[in-house]
Design goal:
This protein is mainly alpha-helical and 419 residues long. Helix content is 72%, strand content 0%. The protein has 15 helices and no strands. Helix 3 runs parallel beside helix 7 (166-206) and helix 5 runs parallel beside helix 12. The longest helix is centred in the middle third of the chain and has 41 residues, at 166-206. The chain is globular, with a radius of gyration of 28 Å.
Length: 419
Amino acid sequence: MESFSLILAIVVVTALAFDFTNGFHDTANAMATTISTGALRPKIAVAMSAALNLVGAFLSVEVANTISKGLVDESGIRPEVIFAALVGAILWNLLTWLVGLPSSSSHALMGGLIGATVASAGFGAVHGDVLVTKVLLPAVAAPVVAGVAAMAATRLSYTLGKKADGKAADKGFRAGQIASAGLVSLAHGTNDAQKTMGIITLALVAGGAIAPDSDPPTWVILSAGLAIALGTYIGGWRIIRTMGTGLTDMQPQQGFAAQTSAATAILASSHLGFSLSTTHVVSGSVMGAGLGRKGGVVRWSTATRMFIAWGLTLPAAALVGALAEYVTGFGAWGTALVAVFLVSASFGIWKISRREVVDHTNVNAVEEEPAGVVTTAIAAVTPPPAAGPAVTDDLMATIPAPAAATAEQPATANPAPAV
């Protein structure tokens, strides 16, 4: 019984650690565009997001129930399996944070849980229909739907604002952007905080602490909400930089459209119990907003790296989760070995991140993307711009002035004959 109590405590602490990484990993989802357009100062933005994440954690338990009751067979799960799943999810979150890629914390958690469950109880313990309908299909559809909605909303915003005063319109859209960012933060709390609630509830059921099919206890809801709020306040500045300035150049109209579209999609999925990736939704809406503005661009090299990370999230976390579950199968010393590895790897990633610090003081610094083949080719065949007054003045400055006429030298070489 003592051993059981210890492993269950380890699982709960590890789950809250994952929730913390989820918070700072996904701060960008709510506040990156708000920070990049100057609607809010960075520290104020993350504080607001943290508070609303905490509130959102209390609004629903549908997603938590999807994880604790629907994705895997509760009867074949031991607390060690959940611990192994969390190891895979945490390490993937930290690695993608280190390189500034907005990958899905949700899919990292799902991947770790699936890998550890398969290693422990076989493929039959995973409910494939729930995986497809409530995880995989939303992962593909959500960013597309949010992107199209954000593109349409961006074009509508610019159309409606054509006759408005420029400064007044920007001010209005910034105010709207703050409100929509708050809505995204609230939606994030209703979706992502619940995933940790579901994992802890699943661990409690597996350990016999609560009855099967139970809803998350109140202390689980509170602790998960506090953990994700604290992580959000710390701020995942590397990913905020990528989301705010690395994908596209954002104006207030675009930020408002992107965040409103994302919040709508996330809240709808939370109501339906879909374990949606808020990262996928917000990234899709940001790219849609970038394409919605005339002359707007999306930095596709950054987007491509992000897409690759999305594709690798589930299998990579599943592989680490399965390996961790294999090691924990050797008993208490195996579990201790996995715990030591998790702490050591996390500390190593943090040390590497200190080589180039990204925080609230330099989060909006834009790293220039090297020109691609198409851009270089267009530049090579584009004629030079017409010479304007400034260019003409510069050219004239390079031409020496004519020598002044002197008394000994006539002003003209061939003077006109006298009449």
